[in-house]
TrEMBL record:
Belongs to the UPF0065 (bug) family. InterPro entries: BUG, Bug_dom1. This is Tripartite tricarboxylate transporter substrate binding protein. Pfam families: TctC.
Length: 336
């Protein structure tokens, strides 16, 4: 999803992510490659550019795993084609050569677009552990009178259909989720495509568009940087540690508006079950460390590990939800 809004933090968040990256780079120099039951992955493929929230999460987890094994687990950024470049690079790697850290959307949403994929979403990725929830939020211009989600709905209902516009990351779960929210609220808003988040948030700040769905990391930088963007609610099941004052959509009276960025660690096709279980246990130990959880929270995410079976079940839940919504709304605007 390198072109998606949620992977383009605003300037303030870029600075925090860059500082975090430098810290990780500085602390990882004395490490050695991770070992898992006879296999020796020395890198983790990440399908997004450095500085994005999945990249930051991958580096935090890789650092913790490296410390436990005394060798570095290098982060290998392979961005492009909405994450497909990195996913394909991992699928082509020799078994045991690499791990994969990425967004479940690559396995649940990308296949729904109908385009040929250079990887097999059902077979090439062995779920190891969840790593984090990447929060999505709805933001509006501060000049808009609406200060809550229900006030935004009332404001939009008072305008002619299609007069207001919104932006969000197409080809991710956020697109059908917000389309479903608009329908349930009885709203019609025009979708405006952007190649990246910064320009959309800049246009939001200037009132050229009226709503943006983005990750919390991106919205925090815009909302706290110049005061021209107001966050209304998260679309997650729980409040975000980085913005505890922000209600969830369910708390605001719209429980159907739910979408979370599911980030996790994957092994290779045919990864031995014992190796997967061992690595999952190690990942859960890293993610349960309060210091690590605090660094995830500072980056706008919620650290959380799981067993391989629980991760696979969560992926299946996401797949079913987005498949149902994609039949109605697609995963992006129609071509042309």
């Amino acid at each position: 999803m390198p072109d998606a809004l949620d992977n383009r933090p605003a300037a303030a968040t870029h600075r925090r992510a860059a500082a975090l990256w430098l810290t990780l780079a500085a602390t990882g120099g004395a490490a050695r490659p991770i070992r898992t039951s006879g296999d020796h992955p020395s890198r983790v493929v990440v399908p997004v550019p450095p500085g994005t929230s999945p990249d930051v999460a991958a580096r935090l987890l890789a650092e913790g795993l490296s410390r436990r094994h005394g060798r570095p687990l290098a982060v290998d950024n392979r961005a492009g084609a909405d994450g497909a470049v990195g996913a394909a690079a991992f699928a082509r790697a020799r078994p045991g050569e690499a791990l994969f850290f990425g967004m479940a959307d690559l396995l649940t949403v990308a296949p729904l677009a109908g385009d040929p994929l250079p990887y097999d979403p059902a077979a090439d990725f062995a779920p190891v552990s969840t790593a984090a929830t990447d929060f999505f939020v709805l933001s509006v211009p501060s000049a808009m009178p609406a200060r809550t989600l229900d006030a935004f709905v009332a404001h939009a209902r008072a305008r002619p259909p299609g007069e207001l516009s919104w932006a969000g990351p197409a080809r991710t779960a956020a697109y059908p989720a917000f389309r479903a929210f608009l329908r349930s609220a009885g709203l019609e808003m025009a979708f405006v495509p952007y190649r990246g988040g910064p320009q959309a948030l800049l246009d939001l700040a200037e009132g050229r568009i009226q709503a943006v769905v983005s990750t919390l990391a991106a919205a925090l930088g815009a909302a706290r940087g110049g005061g021209k963007v107001r966050m209304l609610a998260t679309a997650a099941r729980a409040r975000a540690p980085a913005a505890p004052e922000l209600p969830t959509a369910a708390e605001a009276g719209f429980p159907g508006f739910w979408v979370e960025g599911l980030l996790g660690l994957f092994g290779w096709r045919g990864m031995p079950e014992a190796a997967r279980d061992s690595l999952s246990e190690q990942a859960r130990e890293v993610l349960a460390d309060p210091a690590v959880a605090g660094r995830f929270a500072a980056a706008g995410m919620l650290a959380r590990g799981s067993t391989p079976a629980a991760f696979a079940a969560e992926i299946a839940e996401h797949r079913a939800r987005w498949a149902a919504l994609a039949r109605e709304f697609g995963v992006g605007p129609p071509p042309g």
